[in-house]
Amino acid sequence: MAQPVAVRQIGGATHGFLEVRSSDGHVLASGDSTRVVRGTRITSRTVLTFRDGSVDDETTIFSQQRTLQLITDRHIQRGPSFPHALDTLVDASKGQVTVRSTDSDGKEEVKTEQMKLPPDICNGMVPTILENLRGATTVLTEPMLIFLPKPRLIKLVISKTGEDDAVVVGASRKAVHYSIKIDLGGIAGVVAPIIGKAPSDIQIWTIDGVATTFARETGPLYAEGPPVTIQLASPSWPDESSSAH
């Protein structure tokens, strides 16, 4: 059964800054998260630029009428931070999935296939979904397409675990904590925990108010990848400290 998420807050144009840190606190990448509104459609793009030159670039177009619905999701990962280059396009409106890859000779190969995609597929939309959840919602199951490297439908089981303390410029805030379990389903879901390759859970925090906003995420950037933390960042002006003396 589809679980469409009703639009609780109409999205507007935004531009946020992100930082990516390893589990030991080292900065791996900086990034930008933007949303642009055209009618009932939102184009959301997140670009993470790594210190080693790698790039994680995802552009998601979705509609925000009565419910959130994916239109297209393009996701690119390349560089030494990723074991395999990724360039995929999910066209939910056409039921098409395109995978671009490069062989050992440097020749690009493009494969497109038709898939029966559920209407509530959530690629590129998880933070937006959490921003639109109502307070009473504690568990939600959403389908997602992953690439291993072939496309495979899995389920995200999203659970609200409570509230955690957060601090914004010295002022305390309450952050809503969600835990997301990746359900591979079928025989893969049974075998993965046995062979030690079960995907790690993803943790996401939002901060409520007049408008709910994404604040932090902890989890892998790719299958079997190490957990990293992505969170909001603020600009700083290094010359201010020197000019004050």
Would you report the number of β strands?
Answer: 14
| Number of structurally distinct domains | 1
Structural class: mainly beta
- The oligomeric state is single chain
The rounded Rg comes to 19 Å
Strand order, sheet with most strands: 8-7-6-5-4-3-2-1-14-13-12-11-10-9
Please give the share of residues in helix. Answer: under 10%
**Element-by-element helix/strand order:** EEEEEEEEHEEEHEEEH
Note the beta-strand portion.
over 45%
Please describe the biggest sheet, giving its number of strands, its sense, and whether it closes into a barrel.
14 strands, antiparallel
State the helix count. 3
User: What's the average pLDDT?
Assistant: 87
Shape: globular
Low-confidence stretches: 187-196
What separation lies between the terminal Cα atoms?
Answer: 63 Å
